[in-house]
Each structure stands twice: as C-alpha cells, then as structure tokens.
Amino acid sequence: MAGGSDAVESTTLSCAKCGKPAHLQCPKCVELKLPREGAAFCSQDCFKVSWSSHKSVHSKSISSFAPVNPGEQNAASQNDGWLYCLRKGKARSHELPHFDWSGQLRPYPISKRRSIPDHIDQPDWALDGIPKIEPNSDLQHHVEIKAPDQIEKMRETCRIGREVLDAAARVIRPGITTDEIDAVVHEVTIAAGGYPSPLNYNFFPKSCCTSVNEVICHGIPDARKLEDGDIVNVDVTVYYKGVHGDLNETFFVGNVDESSQRLVQCTYECLEKAIAAVKPGVRFREIGEIINRHASMSGFSVVKSYCGHGIGDLFHCAPNIPHYARNKAVGVMKAGQTFTIEPMINAGVWRDRMWPDGWTAVTADGKRSAQFEHTLLVTFIGT
C-alpha cells in the first residue's frame, strides 16, 4: 500500500471494503493512473481481504494494451513500453531476436519495470541493478549458522512468499499473460510490506520468474497468453525485514497431457524426497544423489547448470546444492543453516540453452521441464 504522497484524503473517499474513511490507496492503481474511487482502503487488512476481487481492475487495464503476438508491434504498444528484452535486461528491442529456438515457445514483448513505493525497504540492487554486498561477502565461502532472530525473520518472510505464490496460482488459467501473473506477485508482495527480490537483480526486469513449457528457469514474464495444456513455473522471492525467502511451483494450465503430468509429479516427488533427508550431518552432495535416483527411475533427466543455494541476508550465497548425482558439493548440514532445494527435471536431455535475453534457460531439445523449490532450515530432529 502507498503512503506519503499517495495517501488518499479520508474526507473525500471511503474504503472500498468497509466504507470507513480511507487513508491508503492501492499502489498499482496509482501506477496505472486508475480512478481513485474503488482503489482506496482504510487499512492493510481491508486491502488484503479485497485483493481477490480488486486485482481484476489491474488485469483489465494491463490486457487492454498488451500486444497480441510477438510479430505485431503497433505504435500504441511501443509508447506503452512493450519491447523485447535483450542482454540480461540491459537492452530492449522492437524486433523479435534472430535465434535457433529449440522448441515452439518464443519470447514476447515485456512491459515497463514496475514501481516500488518509497516506504518499502529495498535491497542494494533496487536502483541500479547491481548487487554490492553479495558478490564479495564472506558468506560466499562459508555457510552461515543463523541466529534465532534471523531464523524468525526468515520464517516470517517465507510465510509472505507462500501467500504471494498462492495469490499467483489463483489467477493461472488459459488466456492470462505471464505479465499479469507478475503484476499479482508485485502487488501482493508490496501489500505485505515486502520487496520482490528478483526485480532489477542483476538487471532482471520483473518481480518473479515465469517459466513455461520448455523453459527450465528464469523465464521473464511477458505478453504471451497462457494456452490450454501449458505448464508454467512461478518462482517467487520476497525481501522483508532484511532477509529473503524463495520458493516456486509448477502449475497446470487447463487440461495438460499425461506425459506432462508425470513430469510435474516426478519433480514434486524429487523435492519431497530431498527435503526428507535434510538434517544435521547429511552431506550437501547427497541431495543430488537422492533427486537423480528418483528422476532417472522415472525416465527423466536432471538439469546440471543450475543449483540450490544458501539464502538469508543475501539472495544467493553458500552452500551450493547441486541436484544431480556424483556432484562435488562440499560440506555437511548443520543446525541453523538455511538454503534452497529446487530440482529442475527435464522430459528429455538435461542440457540447456540460453535465449537472447540472457536470462531464459530452455531445454536443448525443446522438451518440457518442471521445477519445485522450498527454502529449508536445518534443525535437530523434533525441533
């Protein structure tokens, strides 16, 4: 919710939920320059309760100027900022890049970067896209044991992340664009007082990752409409009270074929089996053995180019958690450590390729990929 200059005068507007004098306004409505009537709220609680119905106002506004397909760029869409992403988010183009695409999916234009209210605590890359503390931190080389107050902050942040991902899941259906999913993630994160960690992280242009069909990870939300039979992974990270919480899930869009259902089910089971092994004394490399064994028995392959990671005050840090067998991860788990496990499982070969945007990793053979992720805390048994 916006404060300061975005505050609504209570003498002129009433809360859209309860009718009481309204002091706050939906930040997305401000960004889209929508009428203040119906966008004013008396409290965070009323805003959250009204979210499921209120968000449709934003979706209608966004879809009204989204390009129909990647080959049709008219003057109106260009003026509204719908352009193709290039060079890891540092450049934009009016033209679809030339590339030897591995599958049927193509990038679509993306909208302008979404704004963040001034009162939201922001990580050090928010303004210029460059992480300052993370790359040179000692935590890139040793695994931190979190203090009790850090753990509590991470629990709170991860709970917000869960709420954000659930909100995104509720809007997934044929016909919705991944940009609209990103809008939901952005708005719900801000409404909870958080910052969407991916936004401008090393110039990533959006507030979450949406990876469709053959996209393995780091897909950029754009103007493409989801189609019946697609699968889509939504990867959410929230920055709140100085710590990050990271999770993702793969969802079915409408009626999905049986082979895709088996892929997604196997990927979910890989994560569950890995989580069940987390406890003090277990080697980090063992996670990859567990995941690889289950995926291989199901006829699928495990992506090797991307891995789980330490998380806390930093978005990415030690340890690395490879998901494949015979990996060289060093160290053992200790109580108080936090990290992600996020297996990426492919229907075909494990190898990947990078799109011209510098972010979107896709399967080398164009077959589908699925992923699930949780942030884990190592505890003693029963704690």
From TrEMBL:
E.C. designation(s): 3.4.11.18
Main localization of the protein described in the UniProt heading: cytoplasm
Catalysed reactions, semicolon-separated: Release of N-terminal amino acids, preferentially methionine, from peptides and arylamides
Cofactors: Zn(2+); Co(2+); Mn(2+); Fe(2+)
Record's subcellular location: Cytoplasm
InterPro entries in alphabetical order: Creatinase/aminopeptidase-like, Pept_M24, Pept_M24_MAP, Pept_M24A_MAP1, Zfn-C6H2
Domain of life: Eukaryota
Binding site for Zn(2+) 4: D246, H309, E342, E373
Entry GO terms, CC: cytosol
GO biological-process terms attached to the record: proteolysis
Oligomer and partners: Associates with the 60S ribosomal subunit of the 80S translational complex.
PANTHER family: METHIONINE AMINOPEPTIDASE, METHIONINE AMINOPEPTIDASE 1
Protein name: Methionine aminopeptidase
Source organism of the structure: Olea europaea subsp. europaea
